[in-house]
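User: Show me sequence and structure for the first protein, then do the same for the second.

Assistant: Starting with the first protein.
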Amino acid sequence: MNRNTDDRQMVYLGALACHVPDHREDVSALCDENPGWNAETIVRKTGIRRRALARPEETAADLGYFAAERLFASGAIERPAIDGLIFNSHSPDYWMPATACLLQHRLGLPTTCAALDLALGCSGFTYSLWLAKSLVESGARRNVLVISAETFSRFCDRSDLSTVTLFGDGAGAALVTREPSGALARIGGTVLGTDGAGAEHLIVKGGAARSATQAGGEGESSRPRVWMNGPEVFSFTIATVRNCLQELVAREEIRWDEVRHFLLHQASGFMLDKLRTQLGLTEQQCPIDMEDVGNTANASLPILIDRLRRRGRFRSGDHMVLAGFGVGLSWAMTHLEWLENGESVPERE
């Protein structure tokens, strides 16, 4: 969204809502199960004291449904006006059909609504915004509902310090629309990228087609479990995020010091602290807000935006950049120009 963009070409973030499960698990419970783990050391490194966990009977689609219902309850749009639905998750209800098809019916959206799944992790929300914006810009769709939802906690081995102390569950729903009236923000450009050579550094192998074709692919070893090479993921993040944010700011024809909010995927406190230092940002410019929810993967950015908005942190005219990065390895950085005048509203997740 450079300064010469015609208003008639604009695409907007029309509404945003999220859902975070009520249930929390304190890190002390994990330490009770794993002698030798120290709760305060874990909290200091991860920035996470409690993780939000879905109920045993809930799936990512359920969490996404709750978030979408809250968006509709806000009055931002009527269901018949939705003509596109993107469900972003690594935790589909079934191998087939696409979970988006199930949500189209469950949410009462019209049968003229295009519905598809997008399987991306921590970059998934910003990728979905880019895809939805492209559909609206092209004229193919007018009002696209984006749902990013994840239950990564289900993939964690409870004895794996590198993952079970990080991942929580949650969902966000966003309306991407041509309609400017009442919109929260203008959606600008996006810088995207992929490096599949690093796929093995953050991966869930069990339970999918590739594991079923390999010797020993049945039984416990085929259960979906997340495996993460923390040092490699960290190196990728440090090497990628700053350059892509600088490219985005230059492409959008704004100055670095004009960006009021750098909203980064809430990966871990350690990683975000290092990025803050590398980028020369303050805590106010680059918030960390995951202590009571955990790393909710593709839902972390909509949850962060929703929380900050409800605290009155944004003002009309604020420039902000969203940075999603991780599983793939992939990344997507998006520019927003906020339109709504900030007023604190009650917390509701």
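Switching to the second protein now.
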Amino acid sequence: MDQRADQSPENTPPPRRRRRLARFLFTTFLIGAVAATTIAVGGLWLFNRAFAAPGPLAEEATLIIPRGASVRAIAVLLEGEGVIEDARVFSLGVRALGGERPLVAGEFAFPAGVSPREAMALLQSGKIVTRRLTIPEGLTVLQVLAAVGAADAMAGEVPPLDKFGEGTLLPETYQYVRDENRAALLTRMQNAMTETLDELWRERSPDSAPLKSPEEALILASIVERETGLAEERPRVAAVFLNRLRRGMRLQSDPTVVYGLSNGAGTIGRPLRRSDLANTHPYNTYVHAGLPPGPIANPGRDSLVAVLQPVKTKDLYFVADGTGGHAFARTLAEHNRNVARWRRIERQQRNK
């Protein structure tokens, strides 16, 4: 007997029924695919919207991202500090859109309303918070060390005073980041002074000839720095001292006397007395001829320029003029008249 399946027409599905079934299956698949795509696209749109939406931060906030923190840990930290709304959105966004750029540790300033996407970009940029420490011209090393010791958010102790020579720290505004070492910042100040002094010494004018070395230029610049606070006077004050050195005259600078009496503190808390001018300490330029044994402060670049590029003048004297500046003179007689005028001003000020 024939064992093959019965192929009679009554046992074969009609072609029309097969086509309807195929169309149904295809339509069902297509609708499912469109629905899945729509859901995926809609989800992606919603995610991008959430990732780029302004965050809850009402005002700028500074936050420290710990070294070695994972993306998830950073996300939780940002959410906890109110920088972002949802740690999950941030974590997913970084993993999906952050590429190969890592999130950097450090101190960051997040602006108000920062979005998760903007927060990610900030942390990838490495633009950590930079602080500034301004060292004014004319401070002694002791005073500079105190300023560095009091600086906010720095690490490490200030090295001992004997590690730094007077006048070797360049006054300037220095940038630093959180936890920068204090000793490292002071080394930067030393290097800045060395480089500045070397540069200006190479460019010195022949009129600075009484100065025989960069060290002598540093000493005189420190005196100029302490003698006047007016930038426009510095070259002329420097010229007076250089003229006196050429003639073998004593410098007779009050700040040198103060430095010696203060043991490097830079101030004695009272006016100088006549007896102070007779004190024989090595820094007293009323008693000793020539330059003192070392700088009396840390001079700025302008004072270094003043002594190495002095103006041409025959002035040998100067005294305060009552306006914050000085009256200059070529002769002792002229100087004595200026001194008498200053004494009258002092008496008038005391009697007010």
